């Protein structure tokens, strides 16, 4: 998001989408997570991360777009981990922060 500092303690609220089998009046419990919690999920593919949060992939993508994260960083994280293991040094793992 333009002009917003994305600190680790910044809290986001995501309202899960109602699934087909849920009734219209079913209570939607919002999911609250911090930037730190979101960063911890970067190590998982997008669908796994959404499942762990109990929200849809679409809801997670919308959250990411709203905070300026264009692409889910799972593949980049895996690539950097592989590079750091091969090179024996920090190959830019902190570049995602």
Q: How does this model look, in words?
A:
This protein has 97 residues and is mainly alpha-helical. It has helices spanning 35-40, 46-53, 57-66, 74-87; strands at 11-14, 31-34. Helix 2 (46-53) crosses helix 3. It is globular and about 55 Å long. The model has no long low-confidence stretch (mean pLDDT 79).
Give a quick summary of the entry.
This protein has 97 residues and is mainly alpha-helical.
List the helices and strands and how they pair.
Elements: E1 11-14, E2 31-34, H1 35-40, H2 46-53, H3 57-66, H4 74-87
Antiparallel strand pairs: 1-2
Helix pairs in contact: 2-3
Measure the end-to-end span: 14 Å
Q: What spatial form do the alpha-carbon principal axes imply? A: globular
Largest sheet: 2 strands, antiparallel
Strand order of the largest sheet: 1-2
Q: What is the helix content?
A: 25-40%
Radius of gyration: 16 Å
Unreliable stretches, pLDDT < 50, 5 or more residues? none
Number of helices: 4
What's the order of the H and E elements? EEHHHH
Estimated structural class: mainly alpha
Percent strand equals: 5-15%
Counting DSSP E segments of at least 2 residues, the number of strands comes to: 2
Calculate the mean pLDDT score and round it.
79
Q: Which features characterize this protein?
A:
97 residues, mainly alpha, two-stranded antiparallel ribbon, globular
């Amino acid at each position: 998001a333009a002009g917003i500092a994305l600190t680790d303690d910044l809290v986001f609220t995501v309202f899960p989408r109602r699934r087909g089998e849920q009734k219209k009046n079913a209570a939607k419990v919002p999911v609250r997570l911090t930037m730190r919690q979101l960063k911890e999920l970067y190590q998982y593919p997008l669908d796994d991360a959404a499942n762990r949060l109990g929200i849809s992939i679409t809801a997670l993508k919308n959250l990411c777009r709203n905070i300026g994260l264009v692409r889910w960083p799972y593949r980049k994280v895996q690539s950097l981990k592989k590079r750091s293991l091969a090179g024996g040094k920090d190959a830019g793992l902190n570049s995602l922060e």
